[in-house]
Each structure stands twice: as structure tokens, then as C-alpha cells.
Design brief:
This protein has two domains: 56 residues, no CATH class; 211 residues, Spore Coat Polysaccharide Biosynthesis Protein SpsA, Chain A. Helix content is 40%, strand content 14%. It is built from ten helices and nine strands. It has a five-stranded mixed β-sheet. The protein starts with a helix and ends with a helix.
Length: 286
């Protein structure tokens, strides 16, 4: 309900509700209850389109098929999952930049979550970088059209050159190579975000990163499906910032200084959380 309340405050004129089917009969009632929130509580002038699956497709295929549907009808969209809580300024930030860069193919993605806002330049409202956050984001149909869940052309990629260009440390390059190799032609994909990052970077696209953290995850804990931890985390990152209008626009260039500061500020708890997230998904789908 907290995420829905933020959507209600933003009052979008069109809302696509993408929902997977239940994994079991025990989950059937919970799925119906979540769908009813959007079916009954949208109390503003809004065209609601229900993109429901009667069977459980799994995270990767549901995101793919759901966004395929959205972008068959829309040129641009803001995407929130049910556990991603945005600050109210997130919507206006995305709206303005989706419009501003709609025809600029150098830009592929707009992030909402910034794990390291202290790495940002306070003189600008955002920067351009190779860091893609998918906890609250926005993009264009022109970018999504490149998406390939199977990453078929990764096997033919000049991998060393690609990794050297986009990633900084030996550890980071090794980790991304491992994940790209894992997802290339995976017949049973369990996630979609590495494939999305690859499709954007393969086409030379940059991500917009806000100077403040605009989205936090509120679904990390024992009841989390894709963000399981033994102990509940109230909100991660633990603070929501906001952007102030008018936006202060930077020149379009990849901000390597921001990327280096961002990665240098990463601490073991963040890396551990991400590793636990990946291990849990593998365990669930094994």
C-alpha cells in the first residue's frame, strides 16, 4: 500500500498493472488481494490496463512479457516494482528527463535509486554514467526494443574490450563476465536485470543517475521473494532524498569521476546483500 499511495499522489493518467500468476494454490488469494488494490482503489482520472498472467511465468519472463506489452503501446514509461518506494519527486524527475532525452539515443535508462549519493556532484541534479539501478527506473521503447533475455550475441562479443570499457576494477570485470556468461542463452532465466544492463551498454547507452537517492527497497527480509534476508531491513537505502526543480542539467558525457567515487564508497554490507539476493534466487529456482 505504501508504494500504491505514492502512485496515487502522482496521479498518472495511464497505469499498467503487470502481475504474475501464483506459484501455488496457497498464493492464489494473495495475488488476488494485490490485484484488487489497483482494481478498486484508483480514485483519480486514470486509464488502468491489467496485464495479468494466469500462470506463473517467473520474474524474468514476467518482466519481459509485461514490458513488451507496455512498450507496444507507449513510447516511454516509469517502472516500479511492488517493493520499491519512491520519493514523490521521483515521478517529476523521470517525466522531465523522459521528455528531454526522448530522441537522444546516447541515453538508455533513468535510475531512481542511488546507493552512494555522496559520490554525486552537488552542482547538478544528476549525471550520466554506466551504473544502472533497477529499483525504480524509467526508459523508452527505443531502448527496450534492444532487450534480449537470452543475450544471444554475448558469445560473439569482444569480451575483454567490452568489460575494460564499461567496468573499472578487476573484481568488477570478473563478476560481470561471470553473470553475463551465466545468462547468455539461459533456457530458464531467473532474472532480467543483467540482460537489460548488457543490452543498454552494448548499444552505447548511458544511465542517468540522480544526485539524491529517490527510491528505496522496502521488501528486504524473511518474507522477501527476490530480496530474502533472515533479518528484516526496514528500508534500503535507509534514506529517501528528493530532487528540487528546476533541475540543474549537466553536459552529456560519461562521468567517470562519479563512477570511481561511487564504487570506492561501496561497503561490504551492500555487496553482501547483493550476493545474498543472487544466491536466494538461485536457490528458489533450483
Amino acid at each position: 500500500m505504501r508504494v500504491f499511495q505514492r502512485i496515487r499522489e502522482a496521479k498518472p493518467p495511464r497505469l499498467y498493472v503487470v502481475a504474475d500468476g501464483p506459484k501455488s494454490t496457497e498464493e492464489d488469494e494473495a495475488c488476488k488481494a494485490v490485484r484488487k488494490i489497483f482494481e478498486r482503489k484508483v480514485d483519480w482520472d486514470c486509464q488502468v490496463e491489467k496485464v495479468y498472467s494466469s500462470t506463473n511465468l517467473g520474474l524474468a519472463k514476467r518482466v519481459q512479457t509485461g514490458l513488451d506489452h507496455v512498450f507496444s503501446k507507449e513510447k516511454k514509461a516509469i517502472i516500479l516494482e511492488d517493493d520499491t518506494l519512491p520519493d514523490t519527486s521521483f515521478f517529476g524527475f523521470c517525466d522531465e528527463l523522459l521528455e528531454k532525452y526522448e530522441d537522444d539515443h546516447r541515453i538508455s535508462h533513468i535510475s531512481g535509486c542511488n546507493f552512494q549519493p555522496r559520490a554525486s556532484n552537488p552542482d547538478h541534479s544528476y549525471c550520466f554514467c554506466s551504473i544502472y539501478s533497477i529499483w525504480g527506473w524509467a526508459t523508452w521503447a527505443r531502448s527496450w526494443n534492444y532487450f534480449d533475455l537470452g543475450m544471444k550475441d554475448w558469445k560473439d562479443q569482444e569480451k575483454d574490450n567490452f568489460l575494460d570499457h564499461w567496468f573499472h576494477s578487476r573484481r568488477h570485470k570478473k563478476g560481470m563476465r561471470k553473470m553475463f556468461d551465466l545468462h547468455c542463452n539461459n533456457k530458464d532465466p531467473w532474472t532480467w536485470d543483467y540482460q537489460w544492463v548488457y543490452s543498454c551498454l552494448r548499444n552505447g547507452g548511458l544511465s542517468i543517475m540522480p544526485s539524491s537517492n529517490l527510491v528505496s527497497n522496502i521488501g528486504i527480509g524473511p518474507e522477501g521473494t527476490n530480496t530474502y534476508t533472515a533479518k528484516a531491513v526496514k528500508m534500503f537505502p535507509d534514506k529517501l532524498g528528493k530532487v528540487v526543480k528546476p533541475l540543474k542539467h549537466p553536459q552529456i558525457h560519461r562521468d567517470l569521476g562519479f563512477e570511481k567515487r561511487y564504487y570506492s564508497m561501496e561497503k561490504p554490507p551492500i555487496l553482501l546483500s547483493l550476493k545474498n539476493y543472487l544466491k536466494n534466487i538461485v536457490r528458489i529456482n533450483s
